[in-house]
Amino acid sequence: MTKSLRVLHIEDRERDVALLTRHLNQAGYQTSSRRVDTETKLKEALNNEEWDIVLCDYSMPKLSALRALRIVKSLKVDLPFIIISGTVGEDLAVEAMRAGAHDYLMKDNLARLVPTIERELLDAENRQARLDAEALQERLLIQLDNQRKRLDNIVANVPGVVWETRGRPDSQREQVRFVSNYIEQMLGYSVHEWLTTSGLSAQILHPEDHERVNRETNLAYESGTRNRAEFRLLAKNGRPVWVETHSAVIKDEDGKAIGRRGVTIDISERKQAEAALLEAEAKYRSIFENAVEGIFQATPEGNYIAVNPAMARILGYSSAAEVIAERILFKADDYADLRSAATLKKSLAEDGLVAGFECEIYRKDRSRITTIQNVRAIHNDQEEVLHYEGSMEDVTERALLESQLRQSQKLEAVGMLAGGIAHDFNNLLTVIGGYCELSLSRLNERDPLYRNLSEVSKAATRAGVLTRQLLAFSRKQVLQPRVIDLNSVVVEMEKLLRRLIGENIEFHARFGEGLGRVKADPGQIEQVIMNLAINSRDAMPISGKLLIETANVALDEEHIKRHAAVEPGNYVMLAVSDTGCGMDKETQGRIFEPFFTTKEQGKGTGLGLATVYGIVTQSGGSIWVYSEVNKGTTFKIYLPRVDEPVERPAPRPLKESLQGTETIILAEDEEMVRELAHEVLTAYGYKVLVAANGGAALLICEQYEDPVDLLITDVVMPEMSGLELATRLKTLKPNLRVLYMSGYTDNAVVLQGVKEGENFIQKPFTPIALGERVRTVLDVK
Question: Core-most of 19, 412, 714, 778, by most CB within 10 Å?
């Protein structure tokens, strides 16, 4: 419902008047107003027009708020006087309130404007009601003095209780001489009860108001002045009733006070309305001030007119006033994507509502955050936009985690494909490389075929490196972890790294003291360092600096908020930093994707960083990258710290010691690999029983009466896995030892019991590597 409001603005800027008017219009007020900024105009407006409220700026060139307040007081105009300013400090506000201002507001928090005005209008209405009651009381008291014989006729139509007492106003000596019939309607007591019950008026006074009311009444009685008081009485049914009493002292012919007479009216409804308004204002203010989300109001042009503290914090400002002074909702260059502001404005114009609008914006320091904004337009009766109101939430952390999750899922999908390809390819490489090595061992180096086969062998080796990169990326590579010292790994690689990066790049290493140990495959960690060093070298084609450093770190909750898949705890950090060309955010989002490269065609496979990512992740660690264009790049790897001694690798056996006479059963579903392994093991002197699958291997062992010393089985075979085959064969041959082989290992298989270590050989393998591993497994005590 539209409410009319006559507002006198003491303000030197028309823009601020328009701002306040918009706030009032949106709250349903139809305002008529006038702006004045000098003493002459103020006096003219007060003398010639009627107003409901005064809204005054604190500091103006021609008239201050305190001077304006004195003028209003001097003209005896009872109007709510509210100071609204952007410069009022706490002490100035206190001074204004002492001078008679009813309240003060800051221009950066106009959310309080309407509740404050409504409260002051209600107070003004109450003051007028009190004046009316006092006038009524004055008329009644005069009539009571002059026409006591006609008392009942006088009070019959009064909406309150008329009363008269004798004696001092305390519980013992004051006696009720007269009370009007309205008392029964207001409190439930009859006139008879009032006249015959001693001290009833004192008994029904609310205990919390008793001391105050008695003190004030006695002072008025002794001084002979009239008294006005608000307090609570307890009705006959125990219900508290707020009343307002106006009373005067009755004096005898000698001027001595002998009693009182007065009027008491029920103001319970007014008190309830005041309490409800104060409660609503406090609740709204609490929500606005304490909300964790940013809350704002803005003009149709996008100028902020109200901003809560959370909004200021989100945008990086020290106060809401700063936001209002410096920011605009539709300012394009406050958005990372310049089109966002136009999109937001267009959507509001077309639909009047924008929900879940996600966009990157700049804070005061120009750092970027991701926000979600919900904005709606507030219209008047003519469907014109009065203002916008909305909320803003900082979802930077959530957006980062979602992005990391999407990246992880994307890499996982590509990894599954890469792992499958590498599995099949490794079988082929095992055969190609194996037969090349067997053939080379039987040829004279001067034989024309020797050179050809050597080149084939080299190509197979390079292809094996490629498949290992694919497996490392897809996290399906079989690792041979042991406890290592990262400082030692870097020291052993230093000469190689210096040759690798070239003389034009400065190389520095910074080793953490008391560095903890980690459990990882040392060969794979070397691959990680090498790949990162090559990446840095390529980013510094002319010159630059490369730094490798290690340190003990403890990752806390604050760190892991911005890093997915990381648990808080103690880690060992390996960092590789360069002063190269750096990367933009779009490139950083793709660097771990396989086959993604920024290098020229033919100068990179796009698997280097994908390999790093896979090795680190499979080793239980995490990797983080920071880079800026033309400022360089830093990769930080965090590997879990372990409290175990460093493990030294066992010496490799001599080639002559690879011979054996034990019985081996070989289970392999890939025919070419099976035939190669059979030939190699037979050449080493072993008796080999060959099976194309798990079922065939079981049947052979059931029929073979002599001991079987070793099972060599592929991990993944149709119908029966290598793990299941080994379990069932051990019931037939209790002393059987097992060597697993595969082109890759599935995490589930590993968890089921296939150990990564001495009882596993990864394809592609060479004949010598197979012989070494077989001998190692058989010779374990």
Answer: 714
**Rounded to an integer, what distance in angstroms lies between the CA atom of residue 498 and that of residue 505?**
9
* Cα 430–chain centre separation: 52
Examine the pLDDT at 156 and tell me if it is beyond 80: no
Q: Which two tokens stand for residue 388?
A: 């916008």
Residue-wise pLDDT for 454-492, tens only, equals: 888 777 777 776 666 655 555 455 567 889 999 999 998
pLDDT single digits (tens) 476-533: 555 678 899 999 999 988 888 888 888 889 999 999 989 999 998 887 888 889 889 8
Ordered strands of the 29-36 beta sheet: 29-36, 3-10, 53-56, 81-85, 103-106
**Average pLDDT rounded to a whole number, residues 377-382:** 78
- Verdict on whether the full-model pTM lies above 0.85: no
Residue of 638, 667, 636 whose CA lies nearest to 741: 667
Residue 567 Ramachandran class (φ > 0 left, ψ -120 to 50 alpha, else beta)? beta
Answer for the pair 689, 674: CB distance below 8 angstroms, yes or no. Answer: no
Q: What are the backbone dihedrals phi and psi of residue 425, each rounded to the nearest 5 degrees, phi first?
A: -65, -35
Are 8 and 33 in contact, with CB atoms under 8 Å apart? yes
Is residue 146 a contact partner of residue 124, using CB atoms and an 8 Å limit?
no
Least confident of 87-91, 127-131, 294-298, 421-425: 87-91
How far is 231 from 242, CA to CA, in rounded Å? 6
**In sequence order, which residues have a C-beta less than 8 Å from that of residue 575 and are 6 or more positions away?**
547, 548, 549, 550, 551, 634, 635, 636, 637
HSE toward the beta carbon, residue 573, CA cutoff 13 A: 20
Is 263 in contact with 245 (CB distance < 8 Å)? Answer: yes
Q: How many residues does the chain have?
A: 781
pLDDT digits (tens, 9 = 90+) for 307-350: 888 889 999 998 888 888 889 898 888 998 888 889 999 988 88
Report residue 668 as tokens: 């392999």
What does the alpha-carbon distance between residue 514 and residue 525 come to, in Å, rounded to a whole number? 20
Q: Which two tokens stand for residue 766?
A: 């060479």
